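Sequence, please.
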């Protein structure tokens, strides 16, 4: 925090070299007296530390340090003046991010997922392989948000326009979902809502997303993939309240940010961007998640990520925290198949070696 950089300074973050260069205004005029600094402005698009850029550019040398990067996404705030961008050595100089939405720069496609109209914040993705990137502004901030199109459990296998109501059950990429009643802010429950598959970028992402209108969506990890850890998702919240339940611990809040830093069902809940209402953002959970319930009145979910918890890899197939007869039954039911959840030794099929691993962890 508060580290300051001037033109010609060099720093390293996450193993990546960053050096600082002059800034080009519009109309073109070179400015070499700017500076950058690390801050935590707690804006609607980021609750993390960000890099503030004041008439300066930051040059990220991927190829020379951590290696070329593919399909990146970046949060930003732009609050005055123009923006400099160069990808793989090809420069662009423009007023607002929306001006280059859909452009191909240095062989990389630039998509503005949210914001970008000036005096706002948002998210931009860069689809393609990036050797190096230079980004600068007169009054802006940037925050790296990770890999864009690597949503482990996106909803590309759902059908655009499909509608689900309370009581419906469906699956997407081997995860089982169930539609549940929603609780309003006044603590009354409703069963009259619906979920619809949409593609409008409401959850800070691209492709199909799940729009929940006065309904809750239950992720039954324990009964499908197995208990999960390192769970996260993208969201959009545009009216009304939010319901969150983790491992049976239920919460009802106005906005995602109200839960930032909370322990819910033994899991740390962190809002990594957005969450202040009428915006989109991302969430990360630290801990083992057997069951997750998420819903809202005008709310969108996309880009679920997570890893099958170690417990499942040692034989706890139903994710209840113990290896018992229920897990044995699940394994035998998948005998001599290639089911990845029961293939504990990851040799391509379920056989005696997997049975031995399960029995060796019997509780």
């Amino acid at each position: 925090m508060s580290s300051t950089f001037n033109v010609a300074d060099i720093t390293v973050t996450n193993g990546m070299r960053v050096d600082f260069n002059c800034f080009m205004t519009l109309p073109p005029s070179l400015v070499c007296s700017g500076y950058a600094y690390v801050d935590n402005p707690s804006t609607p698009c980021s609750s993390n530390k960000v890099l503030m850029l004041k008439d300066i550019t930051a040059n990220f040398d991927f190829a020379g340090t951590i290696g070329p990067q593919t399909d990146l996404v970046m949060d930003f705030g732009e609050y005055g003046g123009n923006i400099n961008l160069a990808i793989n050595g090809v420069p662009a100089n423009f007023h607002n991010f929306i001006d280059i939405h859909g452009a191909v720069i240095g062989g990389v496609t630039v998509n503005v997922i949210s914001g970008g109209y000036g005096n706002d914040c948002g998210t931009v993705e860069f689809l393609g392989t990036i050797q190096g990137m230079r980004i600068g502004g007169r009054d802006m901030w940037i925050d790296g948000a990770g890999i864009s199109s690597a949503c482990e459990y996106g909803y590309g296998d759902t059908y655009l326009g499909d509608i689900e109501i309370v009581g419906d059950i469906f699956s997407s990429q081997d995860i089982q979902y169930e539609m549940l009643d929603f609780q309003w802010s006044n603590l009354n429950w409703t069963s009259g809502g619906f979920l619809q598959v949409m593609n409008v970028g409401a959850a800070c992402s691209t492709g199909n997303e799940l729009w929940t209108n006065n309904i809750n969506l239950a992720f039954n990890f324990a009964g499908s993939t197995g208990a999960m850890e390192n769970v996260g998702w993208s969201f959009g919240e545009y009216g009304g309240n939010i319901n969150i339940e983790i491992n049976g611990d239920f919460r009802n809040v106005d906005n995602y940010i109200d839960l930032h830093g909370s322990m819910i069902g033994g899991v740390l809940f962190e809002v990594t961007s957005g969450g202040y209402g009428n915006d989109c953002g991302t969430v990360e959970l630290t801990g083992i998640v057997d069951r997750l319930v998420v819903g809202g009145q005008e709310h969108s979910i996309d880009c679920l990520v997570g890893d099958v918890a170690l417990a499942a890899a040692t034989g706890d197939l139903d994710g209840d925290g113990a290896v018992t007869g229920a897990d044995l039954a699940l394994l035998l039911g998948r005998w001599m198949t290639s089911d990845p959840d029961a293939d504990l030794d990851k040799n391509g099929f379920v056989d005696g070696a997997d049975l031995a691993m399960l029995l060796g962890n019997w509780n």
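The CA atoms of residues 211 and 222 lie 24 Å apart.
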